[in-house]
Amino acid sequence: MGDVFKALADPTRRHILDELAERDDQTLFEICARLGSKHQFTSSRQAVSQHLELLEAAGLVHTRREGRYKFHTLDTRPLAQIAERWIRTKPQEKP
Amino acid sequence: MGDVFKALADPTRRHILDELAERDDQTLFEICARLGSKHQFTSSRQAVSQHLELLEAAGLVHTRREGRYKFHTLDTRPLAQIAERWIRTKPQEKP
DNA sequence: TTGATAGGCAAGTAATGACTTGCCTATAGT
DNA sequence: ACTATAGGCAAGTCATTACTTGCCTATCAA
Questions:
Q1: Domains in chain A, number
Q2: Which end of chain A has the least Cβ crowding within 10 Å, N or C?
Q3: Is residue B95 part of a domain?
């Protein structure tokens, strides 16, 4: 569960999540290409690969093998709970 | 805005937020003491102080001076938006 | 005023994390 | 079979960051 927070801490990983939110089921190379063109983020293949490993370990990304391709899909469920951890205990704000 | 994610990445800072969610308006020494007794987290005063600086810079904690005391209060508003960043785009959207 | 308490500042250390480099395997197309 | 493509593994580099150490200022109580 603490892995989710660590996963979200890096701006490149957040861009990867942005990219997967826009278009699901992408391969590593597709993500690399789109990060460069759309989000002006130049990361090497290995760098992105390691980020995806981390995101998968955090449960934010699931993968599916198909031949020599590995598709990555976004799972937003872990995100739903993280914010509520502190919000629930706080009834209301002071003005 | 990216500061919020970085602020949440550290387990000690999350414990500090837990503590402030339970009891607001605490001083640095109070937070230190409670981190040790309740959450079994032994962090030095300076370490906690630096964490609080970071949390304040992220907008998650506000401070108020009163004599020689400095009270820390939790602000959960930045948390509300972070999760929605990816959740909102999921079903369908984007014109 | 003295001493104790609450906190701040800054330089240094140690550890974590992001990224690179080089090589390797497997699948698909020709 | 040969080659290009998609991806994996592992050791190493470099930057960031968490934490320490030592000393300093300010407030309050006796």
A1: 1
A2: C
A3: no
